[in-house]
């Protein structure tokens, strides 16, 4: 079987408005997702589909051009079963654009599953769990609004909520306090700074103010390459520290482990450049004793399905994951929606991504 064509289509979707206005985090406001779909055809008549997702400045249109103009011409003629060779070829011809590579590689996994008539999670070792428990993110707002939003998600079955911080120290602490009081001790409250704080000293001071409200973890308090400062924060707080943007590749995970910069790693199919690299990160972290969760851009249904397949098969999946990106959109691209029930995600059972 050989790859005969690869094309992309830029897609848009309006995000749900959390507090009656455009949702925002420390990364900025986000009203519309601009992603891209990757369509891959083979001489066996099997078509695979993948998704390119991004919340960063380089989004759907630009990333689709990376595929159409650079990756696609180089991959024609490859056997989809040679997925390691395909990833090596993409790394060789396009340095660091992992988000685009992930969409291409996702389509390859879809083809493999369809060719073998099995869901992707079976290609990754099979089910470790029947479902993935989920976390739901609370965007910026007045602390009272954020607490009300958390209660709604808790009533829907989410046992974990993620408080987005980075507005101001006082408002952030107030939000964590009110969310904790609103959902009670039976639910987990985690905090995500999205790189908002500038120094270890600032982060430590704010986190210590939050500790009395028992946050489950603190996510990415500083910019990604500040590993020594992240390690300093980790040594000086009483809450587990999770990195996200600091790990885009297995080599990043190795450096985080070496510098003891985190207790937990948030792994993305997109940021990793695809499922194969994400599995490598899970394996490295497992050997180092660091649990992982799976993060979201948030994706539409295609990308979300890939995440769920990954999480279904990974033994080292620890904290509740963000594999519900399609729920943040007013409408999804899938005709048959993914299965979400009582705060859990279930892998599709159809061939490929399902």
Task: Describe the structure in your own words.
This protein has 354 residues and is an alpha/beta fold. The protein folds into 2 domains: 3-117, Enolase-like, domain 1, CATH 3.30.390.10; 123-346, TIM Barrel (Alpha-Beta Barrel). It contains 12 helices and 15 strands. The strands form 4 sheets. It has a 7-stranded parallel beta sheet with strand order 7-8-9-10-11-12-13. A 3-stranded antiparallel beta sheet has the order 1-4-5. Strands 6-15-14 form a 3-stranded antiparallel beta sheet. Helix 8 (227-235) links the parallel strand 10 and strand 11. It is globular, with a radius of gyration of 20 Å. The relative contact order is 0.15.
Percent of residues in beta strands = 15-25%
Q: In CATH, what is the homologous superfamily of the largest domain?
A: Enolase-like C-terminal domain
Q: Provide the low-confidence segments as ranges.
A: none
Distance between the termini: 20 Å
- What spatial order of strands do you see in the largest sheet? 7-8-9-10-11-12-13
The average pLDDT value, as a whole number, equals 97
Global structural class: alpha/beta
Q: Would you report the number of β strands?
A: 15
Q: Can you tell me the overall shape?
A: globular
Helix content: 25-40%
Tally of DSSP helical segments: 12
Q: Tell me the Rg in angstroms.
A: 20 Å
Oligomeric state of this protein: single chain
| Number of structural domains | 2
Largest sheet geometry: 7 strands, parallel
In sequence order, what are the helices and strands, one letter per element?
Answer: EEEEEHHHHEEHEHEHEHEHEHHEHEE
CATH architecture of the largest domain: Alpha-Beta Barrel
- The CATH class designation of the largest domain is Alpha Beta
CATH topology of the largest domain: TIM Barrel
């Amino acid at each position: 079987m050989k790859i005969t064509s690869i094309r992309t289509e830029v897609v848009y979707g309006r995000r749900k408005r959390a507090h009656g206005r455009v949702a925002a985090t420390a990364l900025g406001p986000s009203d519309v997702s601009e992603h891209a779909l990757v369509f891959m055809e083979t001489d066996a008549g099997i078509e695979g589909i993948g998704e390119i997702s991004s919340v960063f400045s380089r989004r759907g249109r630009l990333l689709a051009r990376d595929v159409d103009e650079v990756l696609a011409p180089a991959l024609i003629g490859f056997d989809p079963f040679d997925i390691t060779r395909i990833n090596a070829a993409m790394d060789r011809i396009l340095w660091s654009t992992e988000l685009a590579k992930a969409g291409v590689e996702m389509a390859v996994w879809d083809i493999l599953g369809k060719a073998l008539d099995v869901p992707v999670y079976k290609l990754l070792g099979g089910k470790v769990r029947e479902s993935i428990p989920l976390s739901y993110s609370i965007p910026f707002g007045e602390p009272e609004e954020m607490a009300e939003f958390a209660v709604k998600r808790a009533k829907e079955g989410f046992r974990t909520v993620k408080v987005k911080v980075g507005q101001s120290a006082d408002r952030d602490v107030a939000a964590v306090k009110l969310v904790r009081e609103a959902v009670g001790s039976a639910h987990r409250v985690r905090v995500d700074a999205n790189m908002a704080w500038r120094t270890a000293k600032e982060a430590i001071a704010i986190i210590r103010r939050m500790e009395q409200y028992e946050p489950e973890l603190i996510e990415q308090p500083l910019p990604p390459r500040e590993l020594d400062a992240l390690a300093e924060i980790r040594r000086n707080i009483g809450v587990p520290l999770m990195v996200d943007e600091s790990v885009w590749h297995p080599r990043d995970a190795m450096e985080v482990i070496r510098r003891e910069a985190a207790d937990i790693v948030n792994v993305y199919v997109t940021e990793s450049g695809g499922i194969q690299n994400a599995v490598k990160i899970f394996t490295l972290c497992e050997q180092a004793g660091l649990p992982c969760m799976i993060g979201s851009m948030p994706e539409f249904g295609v990308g979300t399905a890939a995440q769920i397949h990954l999480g279904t098969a990974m033994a080292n999946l620890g904290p509740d994951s963000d594999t519900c990106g399609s729920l943040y959109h007013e409408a999804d691209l899938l005709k048959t929606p993914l299965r979400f029930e009582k705060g859990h995600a279930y892998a599709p059972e159809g061939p490929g991504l399902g």
